[in-house]
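Shipment paperwork, digital attachment
Item: protein structure file
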Amino acid sequence: MRPISLTYSGLVGVPIEEVFELLSDASRMPEWLPNCTAAVPSPTKKGKGDRHRIHFERDGRKADCVVEVIEFVPPTTYAWVEIIHRRGAKTFFKLGFEGGATRITMKHVWTPSGLRAWLLGHFYRRRSAHRMFDGLLQNLRKALTR
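Attachment content:
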């Protein structure tokens, strides 16, 4: 199966360094990642290869996920791959300077494991991917302007 890739972007009215600091701090993920209730950061210092455990809860359903940081280039690029739960799903954040603001581009790449997963991915992508990114962007704005 071919990978499914979704890309979204938006602006946050704070400097790029502050946005990168928030995104790369695993202990602050519940502040901006939709449906995230807790995050257990890697015991090592931040950087490529760190693994973090993330707990999600939505509509009473709980899920755990382990992500590994695959790109860490301050202050422009941060990315992870999911190790447990949606194995192989990758999320990339590209930050760019836009005057006094920061442009955030999020790309999510997922390779379906079979035809059923591919069909579900195409159906649910239209319903929830844009809403999830919009929620993420709103949460980032709130966390950064406190």
